[in-house]
TrEMBL record:
It is found in: Cytoplasm. One of its GO terms (molecular function) is zinc ion binding. Its main location: cytoplasm. The lineage of its organism: Bacteria, Pseudomonadati, Pseudomonadota, Betaproteobacteria, Neisseriales. Keywords: ATP-binding, Cytoplasm, DNA synthesis, Kinase, Metal-binding, Nucleotide-binding, Transferase, Zinc. Homotetramer. It comes from Chromobacterium haemolyticum. Belongs to the thymidine kinase family. Transmembrane segments: none annotated. Zn(2+) binds at C140, C142, C177, C180. It catalyses: thymidine + ATP = dTMP + ADP + H(+). This is Thymidine kinase. Pfam families: TK. One of its GO terms (biological process) is DNA biosynthetic process.
Length: 184
């Protein structure tokens, strides 16, 4: 039976790289995968899943209006979702139902919390409904395991206020351990 998986981590942990490797594994066996990424994240181009290792694939985009249950996945062997923190709680329910009623594994990769330490709504629901949850590990500059994020401004100073979503990579965010999150 297929499952809904949530693989979460701090930034720079290799989430997109792992997603692209899984896609490659399925496709090397002649199987079809459905790749999705957030329509909000166009840092590397619209509808692109890009790893920091410069691997890139085209993907369909999702926005809050997408109903995954209304999609025709045909002979799709696996659904892979990057930037899963941006899916809605309702979409998490759809993906959970899809995995269990259509027998298609759904693997979601994303952040657990924002720069304030608050959960993203989609991530919170993934933590509640996912059949399997896995943390992908990376390290803070101090050497401890990074589990949090801080947002920084153009001068490298920490930003503690602002909207939950502000797209940006290494120039806007840093992965940190909990100790550095509270100290910085």
């Amino acid at each position: 039976m297929a499952k809904l998986f949530f693989r979460y981590a701090a930034m720079n942990s290799g989430k997109s790289t792992q997603l692209l490797q899984i896609a490659n594994n399925y496709e090397s066996m002649g199987k079809t995968v459905a790749l999705f990424t957030s329509a909000m994240d166009d840092r590397y181009g619209f509808g692109k899943i890009t790893s920091r290792l410069n691997l890139q694939r085209d993907a369909r985009t999702f926005s809050p209006e997408l109903n995954f249950l209304a999609e025709d996945f045909g002979q799709t062997a696996c659904i892979l979702i990057d930037e899963a923190q941006f899916i809605t709680p309702e979409q998490v329910h759809q993906l959970h139902e899809l995995a269990h009623t259509r027998n298609i594994p759904v693997i979601c990769f994303g952040l657990r919390t924002d720069f304030r330490g608050e959960p993203f709504p989609g991530s919170g629901m993934l933590l509640a409904l996912a059949d399997e949850i896995e943390e992908i590990k990376t390290i803070c500059e101090c050497g401890k395991k990074a589990t949090m994020h801080i947002r920084i401004d153009a001068d490298g100073r920490r930003v503690k206020e602002g909207p939950q979503v502000e797209i940006g990579g290494n120039a806007r965010y840093r992965a940190v351990c909990a100790r550095c999150f509270y100290r910085l």
